[in-house]
Amino acid sequence: MWEVALATLRHRRQSFVATFIAVLLGSALVVACAGLMETGIRIAVPPERLAAAPIVISGQQAYTVPKEDPNDLKDMKTVALVERQWLDPALAGELAGVAGVERVVGEANIAATVVRDGQPVVVGAQSWGHDWASAVLGPFELTDGDEPKDERDVVLDAATASAAGAKVGDRVQVSTKGVVEDFRLIGLVPAAGEDAQSLLFFASSAMGDLGEHGDQVSSYGLFLKPGTDVDALAETLEEKLDGRPYTVLTEDDRGVAEHPEAVGGRAQLIPLAAVFAGMAIFIAMFVVSSTLGLSVQQRTRELATLRAIGATPRQVRRMVIGEAFFIAIIAAALGCVPGMLIGPFLFSIMSDNGVISPVVQFHQGFLAYLIGPGVALVTTLIAARITSSRAAKVSPATALAEASVQRRWLSFWRVLFAFLFFGIGVALFIVTGAVMSGPVASATAGPAVMAWAISLALLAPGFTKLFAKLLAGPVRAAAGISGYLANANLRLRNVRMAAAVTPIMLMVGIALANFYTSSTQEAAAARWFTEPLRAEAVVSSTIGGLAPDVVDRVRSVEGVEAASRYITSAGWIDKPYDGSHVASPWPIQGVDAQNASLITGITPVRGDLGRLSGDTAALPTVQAADMGVDIGDSVTLRMGDGRQAEVEVVALFEAKEGYEMIVAPAALVAAHSTTGMVRQILVAGRDGVDPDDLAAAVTRQVASVPGAVVGDRDTIAGFAEGTRTQTWVNYMLIGVITGYTLISVTNTLVMATAARKRELGVQRLIGSTPKQVMRMLAAEASVVAIIGIVLGTIASLATLIPFSAVVLGRPVPSGSVFIFIAVAAASIVLALGATLLPARKLLDVPAAEAARAVD
């Protein structure tokens, strides 16, 4: 039957165009996702500041948390740290004693920014200050001037100096510790290269006073003795440092020491790529099944003839699978070409929106070009196997009898699987509402919408017939005799119409479920993390941080009731063991004790937020009770930089399940942050004070503070920022998936319309005008779109209702109604366009000629 399959492809090319395009795009998306996943696994960051050191020792930037048993050191979960991990100064001597190491050079990083006319001068994405002794790690050699020796000497890279309008010998203003002071530009070094960043080098003796972490080492660069093998020495160092929170970096991995934030992107990029690929495969299987099924339906007479002349069920099945195989193998291979473009495009959008650091290099190796086509091919063959079963099992007599009439669609297996996936959807509905909590509730959203969609798709012919009856009256009233003909076609062709309904339903269901899940997550994060904060005005710094005395100046402004430094981070509770935050760390919110109760909006159940100073913290009541912790007890926090902090519990408060956080003194959180500085001050006004007037007064007060800007509460940096970034990325990913579905739907509808050439020709011969035919087709397409929209909305609501109830406490998801309107309108326009445009072309063919066309 392989010869017959090839002959069919030659003579029915148009019938397989939709399948070809669906497989090609499916392969392209899987190739792109494989590239994203490879990038997330590798996290390759070419070094710039450390390029001269063959081996770099850095902190692991990760923390291993016991999953269930605190004593089980094998069952651990590794989670990225949110702040830079600092190294033990004594490690330098230990590394210098390793055979093959010639010299060990430490690098320190402090928040430092050149300021010009009160505005920061930053080249690239960041600005850091370094010890001049570490310049050799670049290597950064002077192109002009001398090395810094005095405490007020500074060496700049050429790009930053140019942007500041400064030359060697000039005075430049530099912000360190939130204070702007004059420095003498003593020398210039070349710019950092491709990784654009502002570089400031200070005298070694000045580092401890200039930065909050100026006396701490962020990484060690190792220079090797001549003839030393880099890989062999790296293995020796890994063995020596095994069990300690250090990592040995070589080649492109060395850049991770310069950009520790890149490690955190792995936790987001890998699951995003996996989910995205899963959705692409799911949609591809449905679309390919739908298009192949429609092709088989249109060839019922052909298949019946093959059965009548002696073809066995196995041969018919092999023919249908063979057709799909030849299409898929070509389309899957060609899908690598757009996959080469889609992968970098998606990665650039993700890096631009903060999902992963832009310094990470995108990698899409040969495995991606094997996985993509392979998955697309397997998906197509599975869909073809499912599609071929019905045509292969009927007897020749039955097939011939069904050649001109609508075949039955209801079968035992269809009903069984429909109820099976319906049960899965119900189970996920219950699990989401009764078991899940907080942001993790979204984990069931993807599987849930797919389960509901599969269940509805399996019963789509029945729903199509039911809705066609319900809409018969409005269709007849709106389109007259053309509506009557449309109703007749919808009743008699419900199986073929269902082939067009299914992809529309998929597009609507997946789009609505994901769009509203993302917007609901964002609203929940803002509600539970940010809304409780009282802040009519927010003072932010654009130069790395604010000096400690700025908050006192803000408090002195007339009309200000409370002002507090504000900083966020994340960490864990080490002791006593806490199993509530294993997969993700606790959000930590740092505020000042003086105004903590007024700023946070938290009313302690027990204790006093006014005691939040030094080594103290406030915990949610439920988690404290689970750990057996009460007021006055001590707990050990693992802060964002991986270091421990022994704190006393001074307050307990109620928190929304799934959105709990730890409240700690701002100074404590800042000390364990990457910069060591606080970048925001929250300001609450007295009752009756106009927010605009308050903001204006605060602006006047901080006008002399370089880099200080005043905004409203929307500028609060917090835990909702990550959710907001994730939301936009989800929009982008769902946009790509929706676009893929749109193309598939278009091809399905175009193919279905083009196959009706003979039918439309006969209709015109018996008296219908082209205008009546077009009105009939428009009515059919509108009904198909409406049915798809209704079923897709049902699938999305079954997913969104329990999710919204969990995270927002109400069954109605958050998000603009215009999202639904846009998705629905796009579906209707798509259905009409994909039906009427090919129909217009068919009507150009003389009626008599069209009526003689072969089905």
Automatic annotation (TrEMBL):
Superkingdom of the source species: Bacteria
UniProt entry tagged with the keyword Repressor: no
Protein keywords: Cell membrane, Membrane, Transmembrane, Transmembrane helix
Main location: membrane
Keyword Cell membrane: yes
Pfam assignment, any one: FtsX
Membrane topology qualifier: Multi-pass membrane protein
Compartments where found: Cell membrane
TM region positions: 16-37, 269-294, 324-346, 366-384, 415-437, 449-468, 497-516, 728-755, 776-805, 817-837
GO cellular component, one term: plasma membrane
Domain ABC3 transporter permease C-terminal stretches: 275-396, 732-843
Protein name: Putative ABC transport system permease protein
Organism: Saccharothrix texasensis
